[in-house]
Design a protein that fits this description.
The chain has one domain (34-263). The protein has four helices and 15 strands. The chain has helices spanning 3-25, 135-139, 147-151, 214-218, and strands spanning 36-39, 43-45, 48-56, 62-70, 88-91, 105-111, 125-131, 177-179, 194-201, 204-213, 223-226, 238-239, 242-248, 253-259, 262-263. The strands form three sheets. Strands 1, 2, 3, 4, 11, 13 and 14 form a seven-stranded antiparallel beta sheet that branches. A six-stranded antiparallel beta sheet has the order 5-6-7-10-9-8. A two-stranded antiparallel ribbon has the order 12-15. The radius of gyration is 24 Å and the shape is globular.
């Protein structure tokens, strides 16, 4: 083989390597956006089932994430709390299409006798927790020793939703502390039916939570409320600007959903 052909071969190899390198720098190919609603696997709750769902727009961005519970899920529920727990916890798996939302996992907590404060949240209700941290991190919240101070640490004002406060005594093991809106009807001589809670641990927001009574779900009322927002967020995720409680008469399912999702 001549020196000229050898040189040409080296040039070809070098050009191929450069092109391959440039192709690699472009990053992995992005999947095509597929608009639609996707559901996760069912979880048994009471005498029925619950499923998580996420709705994506034409760009593949989430617009809604929530849970569907059929009528039977409101029957056959436990009537007492297990010892040392904040209600009866049900883990409902997210569909894989919800991975980009920023929510790591979701639980429904059934409180057959309600919880503190008495006269406010002591009616039977469900807590719908959209967690921004992993189960492993959440299970480390023990409220023992120095961890109690971490759980009750006040966030910077810019991370606290408008009008919300984080009272002492609201922290729960494996959950965190609960910020409440004192302007809500339940704190102003009206019955508790529904509210929106923010959860914190070590000054960081770790969950968002619609909290709704069993009695209100049974009315099969559909409504949407705006959500009060903080100025800033510590965790990148798609946060709701409103939440919906409703009923689907065709599928005979109760729906609790975060809507108007915006990436923060």
């Amino acid at each position: 083989m001549s020196n000229t052909r050898i040189a040409e071969g080296f040039v070809t190899l070098i050009l191929a390597a450069v092109l391959a390198s440039l192709h690699g720098c472009a990053g992995p190919a992005k999947p095509e956006a597929k608009a639609g609603t996707y559901e996760g696997p069912p979880t048994t709750i009471g005498g029925g089932q619950a499923r998580m769902f996420v709705t994506l727009d034409s760009e593949g961005k989430p617009t809604t994430i929530g849970v569907r519970m059929n009528d039977a899920a409101l029957t056959g529920l436990p009537t007492t709390h297990p010892y040392d727990t904040a209600g009866v916890e049900y883990r409902v798996d997210l569909p894989k299409e919800a991975a980009m939302t920023g929510y790591d996992h979701f639980t429904v907590n059934w409180n057959p006798m309600g919880h503190i404060p008495p006269g406010v949240y002591d009616s039977p209700h469900f807590d719908f927790h959209f967690y921004l941290l992993s189960p492993t991190e959440r299970y480390r919240i023990s409220l023992e020793g120095e961890d109690r101070a971490r759980a009750q640490k006040q966030p910077s004002p810019k991370f606290m939703p408008e009008g919300y406060i984080l009272p002492e005594g609201t922290a729960e093991p494996r959950m965190g502390a609960h910020a409440i809106d004192p302007s809500g009807p339940e704190f102003n001589h009206q019955p508790f039916t529904k509210t929106f809670i923010y959860g914190f641990y070590d000054g960081r927001m770790i969950f968002v939570e619609p909290m709704i009574t069993k009695a209100f779900l049974e009315t099969k009322t559909t409504l949407t409320d705006n959500v009060k927002l903080p100025q800033s967020y510590q965790v990148h995720a798609y946060y709701p600007t409103k939440y919906r409680v409703g009923y689907d008469p065709v599928r005979k399912e109760h729906v609790v959903a975060l809507e108007g999702l915006v990436y923060r």
